[in-house]
Amino acid sequence: MILRSFFRPSSILFLKSRNLQTFFVSHSTISVDRKNTRVGLKIRAVHRFNNRSKAGSMSSSSVVEQVVTENGARQVELLTSYEDDHGGIIVEMKEAMVSEVFVSLLRTSMLYWRQQGKKGIWIKLPIEFVNLVEPAVKEGFWYHHAEPKYLMLVYWIPETVNTLPVNATHRVGIGAFVMNDKREVLVVQEKNGKFRGTGMWKFPTGVVDEGEDICMGAIREVKEETGIDAEFVEVLAFRQSHKSFFDKSDLFFMCMLRPLSFNIEKQESEIEAAEWMPIDEYAAQPFVQQHGLLRYMINIGLAKVDKEYAGFSPVPTTSAFSNHPSYLYLNSHDLNRSLSSACDQYCCFLKDNLSFQFEQKSSGPGARSSHAITVVGQNAYVFGGEHTPRVPVDNKLHVLNLESLTWSVADATGDIPPPRVGVTMAAVGHTIYVFGGRDAAHNELNELYSFSTCTNKWTLLSSGDGPANRSYHSMTADDDCLYVFGGCGVDGRLNDLWAFDANNQMWVRFPSPGEKCRGRGGPGLAVSGGKIWVVYGFGGEELDDVHCFDPITGEWTQVETTGEKPTPRSVFSTVGIEGYIFIHGGEVDPSDLGHLGAGKFAREVFALDTETRVWKRWEDDLDSGDHHPGARGWCAFSGAQGDEKKGLLVYGGNSDSNDRLDDIFFFTPYFG
């Protein structure tokens, strides 16, 4: 018998197996307690070495027998293993083994691990090693969990309370609330399940796959069942239930998605019918009326659509336990009331000072100009730009965490935009939009890309249609739309105004402002009081006119302004805050070298009251040294919030010395 020969002096048996480790044991004795399936082995000294013996006719179930030397030392074979992070041992069986050999090795290994003070033992048995399951169970192991390709067995060594984690206790499901601009919801009838043949319409639902994020699972289920492409918005609510699927608990996440397409192609294998249904018609179904959960889902979804409810938005992050990207779902609506931009560092500072320089904690995109920045949640996203005039730097999407002030690069997929300068970027909800710019060959561009901060995926939304090719234009956004104005086109400077409806994924061209509003590059663009404002810019010379467009009446107005008017300028930073349009810096005297040189830049902050049409030179603590951005233009800028104060975030730009800058400032006006 193998077990007998295993412990007989002078007998040698060879094994070619990666599942074994060889130990040198000095002056050891072995005893076997078969009743309690424990092996007794007194070990004075253990020295590990690799066994690389080969034999001419070895089977995969062979074992290296103990070799007893003249001084009484012997070799002991153990199952190959590695330690986990909690004082336990993990054995992953890689090669076949007869059960008798396995039991002998397991007993010896368990004794060694016990004397080493190990706690839990995990044995991962591939499905083809089913012959080892029963022997392991007889040695005291029990089932922990099973997957299609393996069974995991466990054993607790110490005579203390077993603290091994239990098997997964919950299944994760999603339900998708998808509504179009007609207040119709996406609903399906299923071919299988409890609603089969009932005529019941329901929201698309499904189970999140292993390794799949909730937001991605919701997008996938909607696409699979209805053919509709959708963008994840928020987790609106979740429900926990018990004794559900094979007695497991169930977590069900109600998710809101924004449709990106509208033509339904139902899944033939599982879906009987799918359609866009008026929400009132869906709610009127008797089954919906009788079930509180479904009524809650309708009410929550409508509250979100009507902007009276804030759910949980996914924010990309990593944990202390893994470098793999994951998502933190949080109420970004309330979070955005505080910039999360190192608030602990500067919130008190802002009470007495109007601008603050961020102390970046890691290296980022570096110095650049003609780039773009926007803020979503606790992150600022930077794209495009140049370090050398007219030479695009890269097409990476750089991410600054405004809480830790550390940089990273988004692990982006999809239709990644090529490098460009003179590009604009704005966000609607959790989606970033990038439009236009100029490539390395100095070609003007007109592609519109979206980037989902939930999935890190780029999508090319339009190319060739919509606004004409351009760079050094301006773009801003409200809750539903992007607005693009002006810029440098293929045939000259432009003065057209466009809107992109983020909900319906379509461009709309507004009426022309006429000759009074000259074509221009580098203008200011802001939304205030329900109107779209065009401020200054460069139209062959620096301009100082102001125009506004009323989307309701479709009319343009040239605004006569008074007060402390800024000098004519372009390529300045702009933001609309509480009825004011703030501008900072900008080029007031262009270089004779054009874009290759540096002109003269301004450093002050001005504000235009859009009600009174009066300009004011804003007190911005100009002499605060490092905490003032100073003179610059061609910056990346975005609206942001900090310490419940709205403000202007400014990154980089060009200086009077023609050196590109890499610092970041946050300016917040005081309205006291």
Q: What does it look like?
A:
The structure is a single chain. This protein has about 675 residues and is mostly beta strands. The protein has 3 domains: about 65-155, Gcn5-related N-acetyltransferase (GNAT) (Aminopeptidase, 3-Layer(aba) Sandwich), CATH 3.40.630; about 170-315, Alpha-Beta Complex (Nucleoside Triphosphate Pyrophosphohydrolase); about 370-665, Kelch-type beta propeller (Neuraminidase). It is about 10% helix and about 40% strand. The chain has a 5-stranded mixed β-sheet. Strands 26-30-29-28-27 form a 5-stranded mixed β-sheet, with no helix packed on it. α2 links the parallel β7 (about 90) and β8. The N and C termini lie far apart (about 95 Å).
What is the CATH C-level name of the largest domain? Answer: Mainly Beta
Percentage of β-strand residues: 35-45%
* Unreliable stretches covering 5 or more consecutive residues: 1-71, 338-353
CATH architecture of the largest domain: 6 Propeller
Per the principal axes of the C-alpha atoms, what is the gross shape?
globular
Task: Characterize the main sheet.
Answer: 5 strands, mixed
Number of domains: 3
Number of strands: 49
Class of secondary structure makeup: mainly beta
Number of helices: 9
Amino- and carboxy-terminal Cα gap: 93 Å
Q: What is the mean pLDDT? A: 83
CATH domain topology of the largest domain: Neuraminidase
**What percentage of residues falls in helices of 4 or more residues?**
10-25%
Which strand order spans the largest sheet, edge to edge or round the barrel?
6-7-8-10-9
